Amino acid sequence: MSDIIHLLPDSIANQIAAGEVIQRPASVVKELVENAIDAGATQIQILIKDAGKTLVQVIDNGKGMSETDARMAFERHATSKISKADDLFSLHTMGFRGEALASIAAVAQVELRTRQKGADLGTRLEIFGSQLQHIEEDACPEGSIFSVKNLFYNVPARRKFLKTNDTEFRNIITEFERIALVNPSVSMSLYHNDTEILNLPESGLRQRIMNVYGKNLNQKLLSIEAESSLVSISGFVGKPETAKKRGALQYFFVNGRFMKHPYFHKAVMQAYDQLIPAGEMPNYFIYFNLNPATIDVNIHPTKTEIKFENEQPIWQILLAAVRETLAKSSAIPMIDFDTEDSIDIPVYNPEKKISGNESPKVQIRSEYNPFKREATPSDTRPSFDWTELYQSFEADRSAVLPDEEVVEKKIGSATPIEKEIVEKPVQSAEEKVLFANTSVQPVTKPCFQYKNRYLVTTLKSGMAIIDQHRAHLQILFEQYQKSIRQQKAASQQMLFPAIVDFTPAEETILPLLLEDLSYSGFDLSNLGGGSYSINGIPDGMEGVDCVTLLKDIVAKAIDTGCKGNEEIGDMIAFSLASAQAIPAGKVLSAEEMDHLLASLFLCSNMNLTPDGKTILSMLTDDELDNRFH
Q: Which family does this protein fall into (predicted)?
């Protein structure tokens, strides 16, 4: 029987290794830029074509390579900094020329032009699919120029599963930002299809953050510093009032390397406990410096997960550092006992007598009767027939709330408010089912507000409890959804237009949203450089921070990866409705409750909000009777 185990050719082995290291064009950008930084480059230029699928070119002014080094750099396991196993645990650099180049060359067509400083000529070589095609002397500038063309050209299955150009380019920007934020002393620029996206000059750390995410962030960050024998922590954390539910800028860096660390993230969140609302996230840019021997960066192929030897003590140091920073900024209330404006507390003096000989007396008028219809001359009270008021109140309710006949058939006599909300035939009671196997038929009955959050009313089959915020959200959602789909929306022009600034990553998805944003009522003008002027807002959005709202919409689109116009339109409608819906805790008048219920009963979906949360809960008569058995 013949042997069946054999060694793989290097080209196939490199393709397998590339599957772990080179996942998408952004992985190529990460590896090449980190190599350039390790080569001592102070200027790095990145040119991208078609989101990296056609070309990723990285130009640096680093130390360059000799002809032998250039050829050896593409061999498997080639490196310039590891000579023994112990070196794996004392790395201070990202990697120099060898660790990922073999993987890149296995799945792309690579051209390298490089020249060492002081050398008369450099080297040019081409490698296609791990096969050396050409090598010669070249009159190139000092440094290195890596050109990676037609990524995954020889692995069509991998190329097929790449995302859209917008998605892939956002991933490239993400990797670019992570490297830029930890190397402020390096001048970096990024171009996509010959258009400059980012140009970051050499600067300090705070200025680099401003250059990447906008100067408006400058007033929102607090400096953090902590020194100990285990770790040195520096960077910035966001003020509590700038926390938001989506799109928070959260970065950890260890010895110049970006990392993800959920455990340390919990330390930061615990420091913000009771300072920000539940579900909101603060910004932070936190940099750790510690002995490389105490961490392991090789537990993940992309090195974004790092294992710490002293994880628990560092967690405590981080928590204390963030809390101290917030306390110094007066974000955490503190009692100052040294203040000059102290409260003057009187001291008891037994010799001091109270002025006056008599103590205060309470006068009681025994003849006053608050339940007596005929008021005394001194206490005139208006006579009022409360029975007439209640009858008038019930008459008004019947004009607003749909009764059983209106719901069972079709609401032909809808009030003007109802007709304004829904301009289509209303479904019959059999078509409108709130719960499985339960046909709920609204009747004209009083309702009341419970704990300023729920509306309680009676229906034919029992008692309904309605979340007022979610009910209003659903009503507004269907309104905005209809406006966007019909491309009709009322816009209110702003007297003083507001300016909203988007990051390069946010700007890549904005073209997909602009059309539906205009259909919803937004009027935006592109001012260039990622800035847009808000000239008009949807009607009824007065009092809403539209700059924050637009940023949240873009962040949600990036997080969810909306596909298709209908999905994008629904996402925008839901965001607008969420921003405008009445909050829990708001006291509603009887008329407001009536209109809210009437509008909800005319919605196409009265049971669940667009994000799947329950609007109406039913307590049937049978369930109520069983509670008293």
A: Belongs to the DNA mismatch repair MutL/HexB family.
